[in-house]
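Researcher: Next sequence.
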Amino acid sequence: MKKYLLAVLCLITVSHLFAQDEEAPQKGFQKDRLFVAGNLGLSFGDYTFLNLSPQLGYRFTNHFAAGAGINAQYISVKERDYQGNSYSKTAQGVAGLNIFGRVYPIRNIMLQVQPEANYVFGKETLFGPPKQSYKLPSAVVPSLLAGGGLVLPQGRSALIISLMYDVLQNSNSPYGSRPIFNFSYNIGL
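Model: Next structure:
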């Protein structure tokens, strides 16, 4: 009986917290609920990574937002021999589309699901001698990023620190089998 009473008490508390946060819903499209977001990544050297992935979203309620975006990434990895000379370089490009849904169970916590379709292409160069280049197989690769993070509001904008993971684990996924740690910024319009 105590377990049921505790569960009911927790549900009442959680629903009360959500109710305090909600305003009277306004009907129709509201421009002030639009936001731009995305990722920008830069890394140079033997491992070069460039990422420009903007998104446009809409905050439907204080607890739910959704939107869409594009992915543009370039990854280059140089391999060196024991003397430090380059012996191969793999360059890969990614171009794709995504949609996302976010749930904010509490103000500063965000859970996100993001299905993607990415066109992955590239080439590998062996510096020889002789120098040889090979085109890597190109393919449209599905990904399903899932995760969550911390939301740090700054007026109508917010810094988001998140950890995502590609749950589909396609062998050609640009994300591999490791968690993806992101810093992104939402800007309210």
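Model: Confidence is low (pLDDT under 50) at residues 1-21. The longest strand covers residues 132-154.
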